[in-house]
Amino acid sequence: MALQYDLIALDVDGTLLTDDHQLTSKTREAVREAADRGASIVLCTGRAPFSVFPVLEELELTGTIITHNGGATIDSDTRKIIHQYEIAPQQLEPFVDYCRKNQVHYDVNTAFEMMVESLTPEVSDMYSKFHASPSVLGQGASLPQGLVKFTVFGSKEVMDRVQEEWEKWPSSLQTIRSGDFFIDVHHPEASKGRALRQFALSHGIDRSRILAIGNYYNDISMLEFAGCGIAMGNSPDGVKEAADVVGRSNAEDGVAYALREFAWS
Length: 265
Hints:
By secondary structure, the protein is α/β, with parallel strands linked by helices. It has 2 domains: about 5-85 and about 190-265, 3-Layer(aba) Sandwich (Rossmann fold), CATH 3.40.50.1000; about 90-185, Hypothetical Protein, Haloacid Dehalogenase-like Hydrolase, Chain: A, domain 2, CATH 3.30.1240. The chain is built from 10 helices and 14 strands. It has a 6-stranded mixed β-sheet, with helices on one face. A 5-stranded parallel β-sheet has the order 2-1-12-13-14. Strands 3-4-5 form a 3-stranded antiparallel β-sheet, covered by helices on one side. A hairpin with a 4-residue loop joins strand 4 and strand 5. Helix 2 (about 25-35) packs parallel to helix 10 (about 255-265). The protein starts with 6 loop residues before the first strand and ends with a helix. The relative contact order is 0.18. This is Sugar phosphate phosphatase.
């Protein structure tokens, strides 16, 4: 059976993993089969690198990963930054002020570091599910240089309100919903689609030979760039509308079924 795509881009949370952050044996076997057939597998995620490495290890993969929604592209073998889109600390000041005033939890990220002002048990539990161990800067601390992403976390209702208010701001940065409980802020040019395009160009891969699978709004740019973009069955309607195909959900091994149906024939 011939491989139909040379590059397979996979979102992690809500796509590759189940809602309880598990990689099923059926999905792992399908991804491994695609890699063994010669496809380049690139994980494209809102996660930081240190939160992606355990998933890579479970898949027995190495190579390039696209992290922070395209904010930083990393070589997982050397742990070096291939490319990143930096945010100036002063650009984030209105977002920090808003979070402090409204008691919304946030973290700031360089390519490899995550920092918070404080940690509650609820927030610590959330981070542990993503293999994240942020350092605590302390209340009122100034932001460091080299930032690539600012993320807020809270209930869906709180995030809905924050999103509605931030969309009215005249900011030079972009905000994007990366999950029901998360909103990310990053450089206006940073996206999974743009980072995927850079990777494809550097490796001489035509977009028609790219298969991308994702489930949320931060995946739309890569679904639209790829020759075939597949939205998971658990995706919001807006994501499904942007895709070429709608597959099964992450609770139904959607990645495994998509790969076996579309990646080779």
